[in-house]
Amino acid sequence: MAASINLSFEEMWEKIIACDRKYDGLFFTAVKTTKIYCRPSCRSRKPKKVNVEFYLDINEVEAAGFRPCKRCQPEVEHSPHIEIVRNTIAFLVNHYKQNVTLSDIAGQVGLSPFYLERLFKQETSETPRAYLEKIRIDKAAHLLNYTDLTNLEICYEAGFQSPSNFYKVFRSLKNCSPSEYRKELQHEVD
C-alpha cells in the first residue's frame, strides 16, 4: 500500500531545494532532460524548475522511463521498517491540520502507540509529535512566504491549536518569530 501525500508542486520544489530528508520516499523528483529521478534530499545539482516532474510512486516514475540517480540511490530501501515510517509520515503530512494523537497515528499504521513511537524515533531520530511540528512549521513558512494571511490565521491554518505554542515551536525551529521570518523573506526579494 503506497502512501500518498497532498503537497503542491511549489511545496515539493521547496523540499528538494532544501534537500529535506523528511520527505524521502514520499515523492520523487524526475528531471525530464536527463531522465533521472532522485530523492527530495539528493545533494546533486538542482535542475531547472521547468524540467522537473514529481511522482508519488517509484513504480510510476520508472514506468515513465526515468532511471535512478547514482548519488542518492532512490530505489534502495535503507531499512526494513521504511514502509511503516513512510506511511506514518504520509499520515502526518495529510493530517497536519487536525489535532492528531499518537493513538490516531498508531491506529492508521496498525501498531501500538508505544511500538510506533520507538520504531519511528529509531528510524528518524525524532518522535512523531516532533516530526508533525516540523511539518506544520514547514507549512507555516510556506504560507508566510506565499500568502498575506496574518500570523494568527497561519497558526490555525498550519494546524496549531494555540498561538503561544505556534510561536514557541516556530522560534525553536526557525530561530526567529513568524513576523521576523516574513520580513526577512521580503528583504531577500527587495
Automatic annotation (TrEMBL):
SUPFAM superfamilies: Ada DNA repair protein, N-terminal domain (N-Ada 10), Homeodomain-like. InterPro entries: Ada-like_dom_sf (IPR035451), Ada_DNA_repair_Zn-bd (IPR004026), Homeodomain-like_sf (IPR009057), HTH_AraC (IPR018060), Me-P-triester_DNA_alkyl-Trfase (IPR016220). Residues 86-184 form the HTH araC/xylS-type domain. The keyword Ribonucleoprotein does not apply. Keywords: Activator, DNA-binding, Methyltransferase, Transcription, Transcription regulation, Transferase. It holds the Pfam family Ada_Zn_binding. Its cofactor is Zn(2+). This is Bifunctional transcriptional activator/DNA repair enzyme AdaA. It comes from Paenibacillus puldeungensis.
